[in-house]
Automatic annotation (TrEMBL):
InterPro entries: PPC_dom. It comes from Knipowitschia caucasica (Caucasian dwarf goby). It comes from the Eukaryota. Residues 3-138 form the PPC domain. This is PPC domain-containing protein. Pfam families: PCC (PF03479).
């Protein structure tokens, strides 16, 4: 287990912008090395989600859906290879969720609070047990900051 203090970054993504790319841009432009989603509210026009039944050997359990959708939950880490899970609700309240694949085009807005653990560094490496690239957390070398 690792621990760190917390820095907070806030981002508003506007209509038509890609939420995923906007988060990647924030990470890159701010030099964040251990970022994660604290909170997100807003709406998107479409989603592409990998379902829980997918495996590394059989990754094609995918939903492509057109909205509009309210973002009910967005969680994950934003290391160079973002790992995001999303739950959205449609216009009659049905919910669907899964691992985000591809862009999330914003409908009206997306207000995102991103945390960073400044004493840590996130990366992803292949895990032979799961078959996926999994999170690796390391102490940040303070001399490199």
């Amino acid at each position: 287990m690792a621990s760190s203090s917390l820095r907070v970054h806030v981002l508003r993504v506007r209509p038509g912008q890609d939420l995923v790319q906007s988060l990647k841009d924030l990470v890159s432009e701010s030099g964040l090395r251990a970022p994660f989603i604290l909170s997100c509210v807003g709406s998107v026009t479409s989603v592409r989600l990998r379902l829980a039944s997918a495996t590394a050997a059989e990754p094609n359990q995918v939903l492509d859906l057109s909205g509009p959708f309210e973002i009910l939950s967005l969680v994950g880490t934003l290391n160079p290879e973002a790992h995001l899970h999303l739950c959205v609700g449609d216009s009659i309240g049905r919910c669907v969720g899964g691992h985000v694949l591809g862009p999330l085009p914003v409908l009206t807005t997306a207000e995102v609070v991103v945390g960073e653990a400044p004493a840590l560094c996130f990366s992803r490496h292949p895990d032979p047990q799961t078959g996926f690239n999994e999170l690796v957390v390391e102490d940040r070398d303070q001399d490199q900051d």
